[in-house]
Amino acid sequence: MTRKVHKAMRGAVVGLTVAALLPVGLTASAASAGPATAARLPAPTTAANAPYAPAGERARKPYMGWSSYSMQVFVPNGSTWITAAQLKAQSDAMHEKLQAYGYEYINVDAGWNSGVDEYGRPVPSKTLYPDGLQNVIDHVHANGQKFGLYGIPGISSALIDANLPIYGAPGCTTGNLPVRPLQQGDHWKIGHKIDFKNPCAQAYVNSIADLYASWGVDFLKFDSVTPGSGINDLSVDSRDDVKAWSQALARHGIWFELSWALDIRYADYWKQYANGWRIDWDVECYCTGEALTAWSSISRLFPKLAEWWRHGGPGGWNDLDSLNVGNGQMDGLTRDERRTAATLWAVSAAPLYIGNDMTRLDSYGLDLLTNREVIAVNQAGRPAQPLSIKSNRQTWFSLNEDNSYTVALFNLGSTEANMAVNWADLGLNGSAKVRDLWAKKDLGEFASGYVANDVPVHGVRLLKVTPQKNSTVSVNDDDLRVSYEGAWQRNGNREVAAVAEQLTVDVRDSSASGAKAAKKQAEAGVRTISVNNDNPEIVYTGSWGRSTNRGLGDFQDDVHYAEPNGDAFQYSFIGTGVDYVTELHESQGDVDIYIDGEFKKTVSTHLDPAAGRKAQQVVYSISDLPNGTHTIRGVKRSGSYMLLDKFDVRQESLLSANTATFDKKASAQADVTVEIGRDPGELAAIAHGGKALVKGTDYTINGQVVTIGKAYLAAQPVGNAVFDFRFRGDHRDDVHSATENGAAVAFTFRGVGVEWRTALGPDQGEADVFIDGKLVKRVSLSNPVRVTGRPAFVATGLKDAEHTLRIVKVSGDVLRNDVIQYTILKRP
Asked: What is the pTM of this model?
């Protein structure tokens, strides 16, 4: 997407970087907070009553409201759209149509100010607000709503040169605030980096936060935050700005929202200092007068959320930008796409703020925005996770505190589809009742799963799944209901992923004429698997096409291609390395590459016209990754096209050989044997032709040696027989781990039984298990080899009441937590 409109809009930004200066020495406007207005400051919020700084208890749930920015870029000359009259009209429309459902924030984006006062603090535009911005804020508050403003990091050259005194900080001036020599302070290069080693810098931020609080501001959007905003290499780093503003705003309980496309590597930092963070680019299509957004801006959020969902929770939320589903004449989405977007925001527990002109909401938009059952899903604050994003038919789910599940079935494909969800995939063993939340209709009780028929193109079904009596619920280690004490880490190369590996047996009959000599078995080790661009597990976001039979040397004679900048591919694999293979040509440009959500580099796929065209070129390669699950993502940045031909994935082999031969001739018959590189108990199954072989009959295991019997092989036709060896992994392929004795994990549930299943290994020792504060058992987690999903503790016959399971590390190098299962006697 283009950022020209975006940059122009941000040019009149509020905060530390401003577009113009009022004359130095100008009498303070009514907006200035001097001694006369200091009494209006709210009482500082203390840590005791604000566990979710800086907004405090208000951040326990995602906020609901409206933001001006989508309309600012939808209408021509949008910077003049946020007038006093318009903001009051939006406030009144919210009060009339949406406020009863929880919507309460009126947030004004860039362009609201026009200069500074004599202390270098922003002054509202007199053109936009002839009666003063305070008049607008008071109107919003009179409607029982909250008011938000906008800012960015850094300080402008004009403020540095003006060298203004800082309010409430004798001896401090704006000229002393920047880092010297001057450094870039934001994405747009509007201002310069502030030196927060200088105490005057915090005093300056405090003075502006105090000013906003005196006006009654409840919310601040902080834009162009880095690492993020397209700059992830730390060449521009605004983390110090974030910390300073967080501390200043926490004194007044003001909600602090970060923007945009934040770098996930610093998620813990954003969670420490903010109440929300944008995880991707703008949702707007920048189609002035035509549309607010586009389907590509919605669909690209799914792979992003697959990386970010764990980071949302009480106190801080994954921000998806404005939800533009309120008016079909401006949204740029079909009715089904509007419902899908509303569902994604709801199940992701994203801040639920809309971008439409609220005076023009249509009846369908109102229905989407005021469905109380869907709003309740959002406000429950339980970010959904995907079972998989390896296809265009995706199931996302969350486990609620009342033991029920929220399940969304998203059809991102180009045809209608029947979509099924199995309870076992959610972690539920037992029957469940199902309710359609959009239809507000109970669908009945189902023993093991549910099938939603004819889910439309880009459509969705949103379900509440309620387990019934005697059901067992499994809770993964990353669930929000699991709490950790001490220093814990997710994965960190201590996890084991489930994996399947193939053994190809060349079945032949040497008694037949023309039989070939047996091939030598291939040695295993690191194997390379080529994944073609049409593999359904590759996730394409944006507007992609597939070109076949090109005759240009492509792998399997086809490629996928995209034209709009921002379109992306993503592929999750198990292995130790991957190559991105594509074509080089003059029509192609730069691609940003991410591994496991971390920006790695920008690669060029451009080729000088004189060099012609080169097929099957490795433009990015990475090796020596920890053996496990990884994700490669590519985002188009320039050029007419971005192409994907294939991925070459390197995996460690768990079989001593990947091929073997079997001769049907009676005198030559022999079993086929192969050694496995994992504990034999980790081999879950061997399958051929989609059917599992029978252990003890079709195959046997003796130590590490697996033998496929000659009787089974003799019954196979001549040719290649492919056997899938399926190995277990940790539950959902991840674990949490701690190394310090005394570290603990706790889980509260209502039920009559509980079981802790986790990994065992030579690096593990003992753990104490408590139920309801009473030590009930010390368990050993040591094992000669690393194994997954073993029962470490079981308790049955508990009273049907609320209980707390707590596990404390006693000894060993590491304690791993994988999955907790509990049995409910009654339905929620």
From this structure: 0.85
